[in-house]
Each structure stands twice: as structure tokens, then as C-alpha cells.
């Protein structure tokens, strides 16, 4: 369940490429025409900007050119101005074949109208050494696209698009634009990151930052030893990085969040997370007045529950279950939460709003609570990056009771458990918004001592000829899996879920029919959810296509979630994601013979994943239990070969086929 946050994530290589050069693709999004005052301007270049001649591409990398575009220049220049930043962005590329026309004959970029004013300085085509200017005849279409509107997420960003007339193969497209950015908060803070090599050839990457000398910048080098050239004029200091014809970097999938494939540089105007916290601290006061009716509900919780742990859970459920999630992250709403009074009155809020409301509620109940910044997808990287407000896209709540720390995501819905079995959000790290000694803190995971999903299939083969096979499936979910299933049961219709399950079994056993609706049971305090399904398979379908003689018992323990990367030139570790511990048991009854498991049924035990299969049998019953558990979150690059070999062995041992039509009596 993705939830958008309020802070814009740091620019990535891919995002930068898409922002600079994008073919307009019609996708399933909500679009609106641009509002008044949000047009892209045309204007001349500022005198602070350095212009450089277009470089030559190194022909040794021609074979690695993608989509008919040869990148020539990426020039990014930043300087501080009163109340924010001025940014110059230039990009030039050559169209080398017909494919490149589709990609390179249009320019598209996104911007936030609440904080940015964009001026395009030129759009040129260079053909046989002759410069053909197109800025004057360029017509920009500016529109708003909300990709996640169906999830209740609105960011207000605009897309500007222009189609360049008369672009031909062999042309060089060269354009530059200047953005005046006035941040809503943190106007004196700078964070910028860039890659010094891309996954495709580029002749020159150039990054230039001009900043007040009295505020020295901090740098972090990632997989590179590149240092800037530095020039000082007294009041300002200019830092310049240049990377000429860098060797393209092979892109890799399944990367850990804290691993950077591309050699890159991070720049920050501060080395202290406290500076980031101080920027947002005034907006997260926890002594704000709560609406009378809402406050009375908290007082009722206090009267009913003496233990702070119980008060915490009841307040969590009050906010999670009764305040719906809607993110209006536009303008001030991108950074500044609405007051608890406004949130309660409207009945909705985003992560900022709900976290502030929950933390304020817990304070009223006498519980130490603070809001904390984190990131949904890149939270594990927060421990390594330089301090920046742009590192976060989500806010949660930190609670401390008798030296024990709890982390709560107020945007969750119908979360189960009490204090002793509450599942913390799996975000890696978080930064509590506190007045003193702010520091990044690790969000510890709960150790999995039992399977979080247990599928129990019972196949009752017919005792008499002509009777159907019966199948009963009981799936028990615990912990995070119970939370997910509980949400699924209320967000989807029971009929839709039952239909999906029936399709799953029909793929394995054609002709399977449901005997009734799903039977569900939810013990929210224990955080246990169970779902029971009942099916039958007619005698004719059981006999068709030798199904009974080639009957498959197949485990569903999450093997499909384990990544299988391409080993070719792999240099990065792979990320196994959140911990998995699952169990699947098949019991086959009313058999007419004695069956056993395979002789070569070896366990798969590695430092990263463990897989076991256990079987028992009697003269009329056969049972197999499969277990899968991830041990470590990452597989080092040097161990990926053995890991992939273990995956093949796991897959080979995850399904067993039997001739359950076999009878000892008939054989004798």
C-alpha cells in the first residue's frame, strides 16, 4: 500500500533524465489544464551562468547508445539567492537514427508551481554547424497530471511539454532553462545530488554550485573519488565538478535501498540533522488544542485503561480507523501539517496530519510521543546520506513507554495487535522531530519466530467411485501479514477475493468448484486473521487428463517474492526485501496406498534463505510441510551465484506430483 508523503524525494539519475528528455506518453492518470499564473516563461540567460562549448562524444561508447540519442552535455548550475535558489539546467543531445526522433523531438519537464518559476532560455537545433533557433515559435502546453489520484494523493505538480518543429536525424538539440525556486521552508538549506556517470554514454556531466563562503558545503562521495575545483571570490565560493565521457554504468535490479549503483556526489549545506529538524519543528507543536468531542473520546480511553500501553493502542486505532487518508500535498500542504482541529473536522488527513494528531493525542493521555520523519522506500538509506529535508516522504510517530520504543504509522488502517505484538513499520530509519539532540534512529524489526502465513490444505479423496474430491483450505495470517489481509478483506469485496482464490485452484485442478463463501475470523488484539475456503472436484474432472495419476501438491510459501537477478556483470548486492517466514501444509486423506516423499529431499540452508520440506505418512494419509524463511536482507554480489543455485533447488522441491489413483490392493 503506497502512501505518498509530503517531502519531495531527492533527485535521482532516472528522474533527472526523464525531466530533461521525455516522450509524452498517454498513461492512465487524472489530468487537468494548468491554472492561471503557471505558464512557462521565455527569457534571456542570467549573467551568473557560465556557458560552455558543446563537447564531443567518445566514439568508443557508440555501441552503448540507447534509443537513438547520443548525450552530449548535462550542465547543472546552482546559486543561492534571497529566499531560495536559482538553478540553470542545460541539456544537449544528438539524434543518431530514426528511433531518436521519437524520443528527442519533444521536451518535457515537471515543476512545482507553488515554489518554482521556470524560464526557458533557448531551444536550438544545430544542423551541419548552423544554429536554428526555436524558442520564439515554441508553444508550451502546461497541464497537471495526478498519477495517484485514485489513492487519494495529490501533489499539484505541473508538466510542461513542447514539440520541436522540423527535427531530423543528425540534428543536435540544445536547450537551457532557469528556475527560480523559493522553498516554503528551509530557504537557507541546500541539498543536491548527481551522478558522475550514467547508464548510457554522455560526453560531459558538469555540475557547478556557487554558495556563500561563510557557509561551507559538505560533500559525500559515493563510489567515486572525484573532487571539485574550488574558486573563492571572498563572499562566494564556486565548486565545479566535471566528468568527461565517463564509462557507462550497467543498471542493476533488486538493489538494496542503501546501495547506489551510480558513482555520485551528495552536497549539503549542513552536517547536522538538528538543522533539518529545527526547520520543521515550529509546525509540529504537540500542545495544540484538540476538538472537544475528540478530546472527550481520549478522556474516555484514559478512564477505561490505566496502562499506558493500552492507551497507546486505543488512541492509535482511534486515529487510524476514523481519520481517512487523503494527501493534498500542494503548496504549504507539501510540508506543513494542518491543525488537529482541522483534521478532525474534515475527517481526513495525510501522514503529516495524522501523525501530528496521534502524537498530540498520546501526549494528552500522558504518554511520551513525537512525530518522526522517514521514507517509505528509501528509509534504509537515511543512515548514510547527508542531512537534507528532501530525504523524507513520510511521517510516523515515535512512542516511548518505560524505556521501550514503539513506532506507529498513523496512516495504517485497522492495524492489529497490542503493545506486546504490535508490528513496527518496516522503514529502516526515522528522524524524530525534537528540540534537542535530534539524530537518526533505527526502527528495529520484530524477529519472526513463527510463520506469518500458514496455508493448510486438506484433500479428501473420494472413498467411493463417483464421489467428488473435497478440498478445505485454512490460511492463518499473523503479524504484518494479518494487517495486510485485514485491510484486503475490507478494501475488496469478499466475492472478488473468493473468485481469485477459485481461479488459483482451477489453474492447478481444472474443474474445481467453490462450495460456499469464504469464512473469515479476525482476532485483532492477537493480530490473527484466518480465512477458510471449501471446494470440490467432480469424479469426472478428477479422472480427466490423468489428473489423479499426476496430482500436484504445490507449496505457496512466497518463493515468487525472492528475486532472481541477471548474474551477467553483476557487481551489486541484491535486496530480499522485508523478512519472509511462511509455511504451507498439504494433507491428502482416504488414500488406498502408502506414499512417501522424495529420497533426495535435501533442505536448503544458506546465510540468506532457508527452505525445508517435511513429510509423514500412514497407509491412508500423506502429509507434507514446506517452510521458507529469509535469514538476511541482502545477498552480497560474490554470493549471488550460490544463492541462485539454491533458488533452483528450492523451486525443484516446492511441488511434488503423485499418482494418488494407485491402490495397493489392485497392485497385489
TrEMBL record:
InterPro entries: DUF3857 (IPR024618), Papain-like_cys_pep_sf (IPR038765). This is DUF3857 domain-containing protein. It holds the Pfam family DUF3857. Residues 83-249 form the DUF3857 domain. It comes from Mesorhizobium onobrychidis. It comes from the Bacteria.
